[in-house]
Amino acid sequence: MPVLVQPIRSDLGYVACGKQSVGGTSVAPNVFPRFMDGSSLMISAKAEDIWEGDGSRRLGSIVKNLQEVAIKLTIAPRPNEIGFFEVMAQGAGSDTYTAPTVSTTLSSATLVNATTASVAANTGLTGSGTIALVLSAGTAREEIAIFNIPPTGAGPYVLTVASAYNGGHLLLAHNSADTVQTAATHVITDQSDGNYYTFEVSMGGTAGSIIRVRDCKCKTLKRSAKAGSILMYELEVQGIACVAQGSAATLTFDPHPYVLFTYGVFTLDGSTSGDALAVDSFDIAQNNNPDTTIQTEQVTLAAIIFGNLGLDVGLSIIYQNGNRIAETYFGSATGTTDAQALFVGSLLLVFTLPDTLNIVTYSVPFMTYTKAEPPALKKDGKAFRQALSATSTSNFAQNQYLLQTTVANTSYAAY
Amino acid sequence: MANTPKLVAARYIGDYPVVLSRQHGPVYAPDTVDADGTIVPGQRIDGTLIGKGDLVMLPAAEVLGQTYWHDPHQQAPSLYIGVGAVVRPEHAGMTRAELHAIGYDFHEGRRDFEAVVAAPAAPQATSQAAQPLDDSVALPDDAVIVPDEAPSEPAEEPEEPSVTAEPTSDAADPAQGA
After folding, report:
1. pTM value?
2. What is the rounded average pLDDT of the residues A46-67?
3. A197: which strand partners?
4. Which end of chain B has fewer CB atoms at under 10 Å, N or C?
5. Chain B nearest C-alpha distance from A252 (Å)
6. Cα–Cα distance between B132 and B121 in angstroms, integer?
């Protein structure tokens, strides 16, 4: 009887990570994004041929000079994960955290299908209209619902569920004293250096390899989406040292939804009309250009630091006129001949999830268009598409950041 | 390192609720004791949503961290010292910096779980939950717990849980390569 090989499914694995409290000390991962194709672990060794005069013409030996490890991760991040990975990319201390404006508790328990909720305080609830509130945040009965404000009563205060939310009824039951909050806000901007993170990559579980990599820093992060699809993050990190693990981590997944392109509103060069309505895909690509040459006593790196920051924006638009070509190459939208002046614009992109509580905003305040590709002619007669490229600059150090990512979510502490 | 991880009761303290994956087999809640004193086995909870305060049986190393020793010159094979921050007896009393210098590699536990070392008020915890670890991972006679030191970043350093260690299976002395 032939002995069959024991194949391992290529989806039996994970890429997980955790933020280290200090460089040099690994941490068991606690963030488990759902990996997608394009995720991998790469270990590479630089070796040196040792040629010595030993009377032969044969290679004597090979010495390993340096061993490096890198990880690629492709995910459709959830709002809470977006904050985590943005801080990883933007650097240490990049998260300016603002506590929720509404932070109170339920004065009494609510049942499934309840139409009202009684809260202890009305701070932040005295306006009019509707407001998205998360009840029982962090618990298994967490629910983001929309309420009418202001509440009634003199305390406790009674909030009515807005009819726009599940017909005016709560979906879950909540306990008395459970929290009632608006979103936390994380304003994340680029910093001089990054935190160290531990990554753990399982390739086949214990039957294959589970490798924990300490002291990783973000090399690149590309945020992108196409019309009708989902917001994607492609992350590449460089690590320092590996340790094989004998058992797999307990995977815990964020149950919140991913971000759809259709949730987005573009403001391009200060306008929400024109080309802002014609974007059919975008990417915001960040390169931290880390120094990965710091090697001392060991065959692995001794440290990693961020280098110069590169931030490029790519847009594909449905071509409507020749303005972009004229701006980029002829000096202005009305230019007619070659000119040195480059066109400077901006990008503001806001994704608001249907719950209206989770919001992701990307702001590139000052970007220079470097390419406005004339669209290619095609006999099929379909619409022209135009690729635009722009690079974010500090405008002679006047801007404090190249990219500001603002995340409103249910992570109630700085990343 | 252990291929069959020892489990400890841990409390979820993460920011947002999470779904326990089924990918690596069953995950259970800790046993409980009912009013009659009968031990009620913990329910299987993989595939379910858990949130703040929920108890889960997790591999000890995931919750308490673990310790390795690596040859600082990267010539000798590494050693798994045990669960938690532990060192060989001959290295007791050394500072973390000194231990790092001779090759100790302390891994911290997950930030979104904390070890449960005492029985929760209600429901009563079982013997499993009431003890920090079961006997199979009790501190060996020759292992020494590394005392906490002031963290370099207090705001982010989770409080160290009670720790213990797994017996070292390797006979080699970590100091040999140091």
Report:
1. 0.88
2. 96
3. A19, A216
4. C
5. 5
6. 16
C-alpha B14/C-alpha B110 separation (Å) is 10
Please name which of B120, B137, B135, B133 lies closest in space to residue B55, comparing C-alpha atoms. Answer: B120
Chain B closest CA to A125's CA: distance in Å?
23
List all residues 6 or more positions away from B150 whose beta carbon is below 8 Å from its beta carbon: none
Assigned token pair, B60: 């000890």
Question: With bands split at pLDDT 50, 70 and 90, how would you rate the model's confidence at B160?
Answer: very low
Task: Give strand pairing partners of B19.
Answer: A253, B49
Average pLDDT, chain A: 96
Q: Which residues does chain A have within 8 Å of residue B61's beta carbon, measured at their own beta carbons?
A: 28, 247
Judged by CB atoms closer than 8 Å, whether chains meet at A21 and B74 is answered as no
Which residues make beta-bridge pairs with A241? Answer: A214
> What's the number of CA atoms in the CB half-sphere (13 Å) around residue B20?
24
Listed residue (B74, B99, B78, B174) closest to A296, CA to CA? B74
Residue B134 contacts residue B6 (beta carbons within 8 Å): yes
CA A182 to chain centre: 21
CB A30 within 8 A of CB A213: no
Which residue in chain A has the smallest CA separation from B64? A28
